[in-house]
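Entry: Nitrate transporter
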Amino acid sequence: MMSSQLPDAWDYKGRPAIRASTGGWSCAAMILFVELNERLTTLGIAVNLVTYLTATMHLGTAASANTVTNFLGTSFILCLLGGFLADTYLARYLTIAIFTALQATGMAVLTISTAATGLRPPPCTDPIGSCEPANGTQLGVLYLGLYLTALGTGGLKSSVSGFGSDQFDESDAGERGRMARFFSWFFFLISIGSLLAVTVLVYIQDNLGRRWGYGICVVAILAGLLLFLGGTTRYRFKKLQGSPVTQIAAVTAAAWRKRKLPLPSDPAMLYEYDGENVKGKQKLPHSNQCRFLDHAAILDAAEEKKRWTVTEVEEVKQVVRMLPTWATTILFWTVYAQMTTFSVSQAAAMDRRLSTSFVIPAGSLTVFFVAAILFTVPLYDRLLAPLARRLTGHPHGLSPLQRIFVGLLLAVLGMAAAALTERRRRDAAKSGVTQSVFLLLPQFMLVGAGEAFTYIGQLDFFLRECPKGMKTMSTGLFLSTISLGLFLSTALVSVVHKVTSRRPWLADNLDDGRLDNFYWMLGAMNVLNLAVFVAAARVYVYKEKRPADAGIISSAHDDGDDDVLVHA
C-alpha cells in the first residue's frame, strides 16, 4: 500500500497522507467556503462604508474615502504578515483557523458598533457640515472592528489558495488537472462573493440596517470556520519551508557585509553546492545582472556555518528583476480605489430609481464593476485570446506583461470617462437636473475590465517568474501592489484636499467641488505610469528565455517573441 502514500504530504497526525482518504475536492470545497465568506465580508464593508460614514457618523467625504482605502489597504498589506507566519511558524491550516476567528471577532465588534445607539452620533437632518460628528469613543469602536476584520482578512487570505492547492498532488496527472480547476473555482467563488456583497448584503444594510448586514457576516464566517475545522482529519498538510523574506534579507546583508571583497573574474569561483539540486532546489545558472549581490556567494574562510550559494543569490536577483513591474502596477489599484469611494459618492447624488418603489442602493452600483470582470474573463478566453494568439504567437494569446499593459490602458480610459461624467453631472446639478446613475456605467465597466486583465496578468507574472521556493511570497508581492495603491489613494486624497482647501476639489457636497479635476489628475498620472511600464516591459526577458551570463537588454532583442510590447 506504500504507493498510495504521498511523498510530500502528511495527515493531521503527522503520518504520510493516504491518497484515497485525504485531500481532493471535498476538502478543497471546505476551504473555498472560507474564501467565499472572506470576499463577502470585505467587499460588503468596503462598497457601502462611505455612505455610513457620511450619513450616520457625519464625517466628511474625503475622510470617509480615506477610511475605506485605509481599511482595504491594511487588509492586503497584512497578507504579508499572514504569509510570513504561515511559512515560518503556524503553517497554513492554523493560520486560516486563527485569522478566520479574528475576522469573526472584528465583524462582531462592527455589528455592536452599528447596533448600539450610544456608539453613533445623534441623527441629523441638516446638511452634513452642521451635524455633530462621531466622537473619539464612537470612532474608536468602529475602527477597532474594522481593523480586527482587516487583520483576520489579511491572515487567512494569504493561505487559503495555497492550502486549497495542497489538497491536490501535482505529481499525479489526474490531480494536477483537478488543481487547475480548483483555481478556476477559486476565482469564480470570489466573484460570487463579490456579487452577493454588492447586491444582497448592501440591500440588507440599507433597508434593514447595518447591524443585520454585519450580523449575517458574523454567522457566515463562524459557519465557514466550523465547516473548515470539520475537515481537519481529511486535510493534507505540508511541512514548513521557512519564509523567503528571511533569505532575501540575509543574502542582501551578506552582500553588504562582504562588499569590499573583490568579485572573481570567473563566476565558477563563487560558492555553489555539488550535484543537481541545492537544498532540494534546482540549480540556477549565474547571471550578470545585480552583480553586487554576488558578493554574498564569495567564499570566505571566516564564514563556515552559513554560506550563500549562487542558486540562492540568483533567486534573490530574480525578485529584484521583478520590482519594476511590481512598482508600475501600484497606480492601477489607486484607480480601483475610486470605484468604492468617490464613484459611490457620485451614485448617491444621482437618480437611482428603477421604479417608483425601488431605488438602487448607491453601493450596489459596483455590481457593474464585478459584472465587467465576469464578462471580460470568458470574452478574453473565447474570443480575444485566439485572435491574440495568431497575432503574437504566444500560446496563451497575450503574455502576462501584455495583459497588464491592457489593464493599465483601460485604467487611463476609465479615469477619462469618470472625469467627463462628473463634469456633466455637476453642470446638470447646478441647473437643477439630477442625472441618471447609469451614466456611471462606462467608468465601472472600463476599470472592471482593467482589473480582469491586470489581476490575472499580475498573478500569472509573479507566479511564473518568482523562484520555485518563493511562491507564497510571490502572492504577497502581488497583493502588496493592491495595498500600496489603496494607501496611495489615501495620500493623494489628503494632499489634494489640503492643497485645494480654498476652492476644494473634494468637497463634502460634490456639487461644490471639482471631483472631475481629481479624476483628470489620476488619468495623467496613469499615462506617465503606463509609459514607465512600457519602458520596463520592453527590456524584460521571461525566466525561461534568459540564458546564463546574458544581459537583460541584449537578450530582450534576441528573444523578443515573448516579450511584451516588442512585437505587439
